[in-house]
Design brief:
Layout: E1 6-9, E2 16-17, H1 19-32, H2 51-59, H3 63-79, E3 86-87, H4 91-100, E4 104-112, H5 113-123, E5 131-135, H6 145-156, E6 164-168, H7 171-180, E7 183-187, H8 194-199, E8 204-206, H9 209-216
Parallel strand pairs: 1-4, 1-6, 4-5, 6-7, 7-8
Antiparallel strand pairs: 2-3
């Protein structure tokens, strides 16, 4: 076995580039709510944290209205946005090699679990993951990233935390890994940055899937 026996991935911005579908669906929600429509570039901050947090913290949406924003967002996302995505380069091979080497692979994401399955099914990769963990569709408990990672570890049977690695593209993944007591790796092909990862003390930072594979094995 290699350095890590269990690898847990974030989903949006790490495994799959779901940006187009997410960002256009966010714009739709603001339009439907009769508000000024933010630019696609400005909305990129949504990718990473729970959508509830992004609406309320970044755009000042009230507790009273945020549920309707999320409803409108998911309305378009389920109809169109879910298909506006693609796997990042090298990912199918990365997961296949990890399985060949006996490494168990999971997902821990702040995306609703049902939507993770929908996207993974559309891309034909659902069966490549040994565990998929997301939030409930209403995320009434505002699940923490640490909690999602710990749940994925439990499903993978990852009892030894020194043999588990969390891989993601935002600081929330790095902080979640720290909370769970496992090493973290920030990837530069998603929506985060080297500065962000260094500020949050990522264990590793990689620029492509080949570099990540070498690190894991």
């Amino acid at each position: 076995m290699g350095k890590y026996d269990y690898v847990i991935f974030d989903f949006d911005g790490t495994v799959v580039d779901t940006g187009e579908g997410i960002l256009k669906s966010l714009q739709y929600s603001f339009k439907e709510m009769g508000k000024e429509i933010p630019s696609l570039n400005d909305l990129k901050k949504f990718i990473g944290p729970p959508v509830y947090y992004s609406y309320t913290e970044y755009y000042g949406v009230s507790e009273k209205d945020v549920g309707m924003y999320i409803k409108k967002y998911r309305e378009r996302y389920r109809e169109k946005g879910i298909y506006e995505c693609e796997l990042y380069n090298g990912f199918p091979r990365l997961i296949d090699v990890l399985h060949e080497k006996g490494v168990k692979v999971g997902i821990a994401s702040s995306k609703p679990e049902s939507l993770i399955y929908d996207v993974a099914d559309f891309l034909g990769v659902t069966g490549k993951f040994d565990a998929i963990v997301g939030v409930q569709i209403d995320d009434s408990n505002h699940s923490s990233k640490t909690g999602l990672i710990l749940e994925a570890m439990k499903k993978l049977g990852a009892d030894d935390k020194t043999k588990a690695l969390m891989v993601g593209d935002r600081c929330y993944d790095i902080d979640g890994a720290a909370g769970a007591g496992v090493d973290s790796c920030g990837v530069l092909w998603g929506y985060g940055s080297k500065d962000e990862f260094e500020e949050h003390n990522a264990t590793y930072i990689v620029s492509d899937t080949q570099e990540l594979l070498k690190l894991i094995l």
